[in-house]
Design brief:
This protein has 524 residues and is of the alpha/beta class. The chain is built from 15 helices and 25 strands. A hairpin with a 5-residue loop joins strand 16 and strand 17. It binds S-adenosyl-L-homocysteine (SAH). S-adenosyl-L-homocysteine (SAH) binds next to helix 5, strand 9 and strand 11.
Amino acid sequence: MKGKLLVIGFGPGSEEHITKRARTALQESDMIIGYKTYVDLIEGLLNGQEIISTGMTEEVSRAQEAVRQAELGKKVAVISSGDAGVYGMAGLVYEVLVEKGWKQDTGVEVEVIPGISAINSCASLLGAPVMHDACTISLSDHLTPWSLIEQRIEAAAQADFVIALYNPMSGRRTRQIVEAQRILLKYRSPETPVGLVKSAYRDRQSITRTTLEDMMNHEIGMLTTVLIGNSSTFYYDDLMITPRGYQRKYTLSQKEQPLKPHQRLKKEAEPWALEQVTNTSSRAIADEALQLILGENTKQTEYIQQPIQSIFEVSVSPGVANKKFTPKQMMTLAEIVGEDGSMEYTQDHHIKLQVPTTNPDQVVAELEKVGFLLAPVGDVLTLKACDFCEGEKKDSIPYAESLQARLGGMELPKEMKIGFNGCGMACFGAVREDIGIVFRKGAFDLFLGGKTIGRNAHSGQIVAEGISPDEIVELVDRIVQEYKEKGHPNERFHKFFKRVKNVCGFEFQDVSPSLKIELAPCGD
Ligand code: SAH
């Protein structure tokens, strides 16, 4: 009878996280060979197998013994924690076999059974820190020269990999992790999230959330995996999260805003893609990379944060009531948008900007300096006011400004527009917006649920006339809050009003035109 080597990764340590194949493989073997602590972890799954357990450093003799026993005809399970192919026994078993001239066809059979490696088990306990390109680096310099390990840390840090440090520290090896931290700090912010997971899915599990700067103030040991975030990793509610990509889009209200599906793959949305990088700029990137490496010996490269370009989206207008741009504002727009950005005039009296930048805060500061009113883009509240007869009918302007300050840019289930007109002429069409406010005879008329688009577009229902100026801002605020809380995602305000029937005490009445009309979705 020919023997077999079953090289089994049993995962982090709990029985739930062992694969089914690993379990059956343990049970079909005659003999288990492993490090004593690991044998103890899986003992509950055995059914009378012979056990050979040795100390941790005796890996080579374990592998040799396993091969010897298999050649004698036994089915031998060699166990590793995590995955046997990640700093585990799989490579070593093959090395012993290769040494003996073993061949797949003629020699003992080998099956390597995959397991959940520490990078995955520890990541799951921290949140989702891996997500993007990641690497594992073992800090053990018992079998690997420190100079090589150092180089790998340097390269990984520079290339913004998420890094899982295995074997970070032991009783005698304490300096390696300090050195690793020092190298990482050259390229990454001190606030970079760092997760320390000890004994994942084992009895003594402990999880520490710290930062690159602070990590050494916590216990790190032989059973710890250190997970270093990349430059976009963040903490949210105690979870360590790395976004799925660098394809970032900022608006004022949201830091990361995925593009709508139909926009996502457009060329303009991906200025960083290979196709979009012109020859000159890819050369520049290569030169810059080279400079980083070559410059290393001559001048100390200090803390390089990867400059990650994002498309910053924001809409600007000259003001709530003011509709006039100044030449200075127009020049600032041209400068900021430049050749690579875009500027688009929107239905709601704004100019929407898309600006590729590594520094959205600076863009905001420059726009604000020339007096622009800034608003985020997306499912947010926009106030559309009239020009108050070029500012002559100014009594109600403060209320419009106060609504803008309180509600402008608020995130909502769907975009919402408040139309605000300074006299009963309502020539800017406030009554056709989601919420219409018309100032007349020293008080306000309120319209709710206009349907602003579509072939069956219609004005809102007039729900109140003569609302006192002291009440209008509070009242509209309450209406918007109710919609924010109870509206379904993507539900426009008129649909919401129709569904809930009553908003802030105002009863819904169907004011849509009764004629039968075929609905025409976009493009039809
Ligand atoms: N083959 C294993 C790695 C063995 S190297 C695997 O794939 O996971 C040993 C290192 O693995 C430890 O120093 C630690 O960094 C990491 N490690 C293994 N099991 C772990 C666990 N349950 N929790 C945290 N780290 C673990």
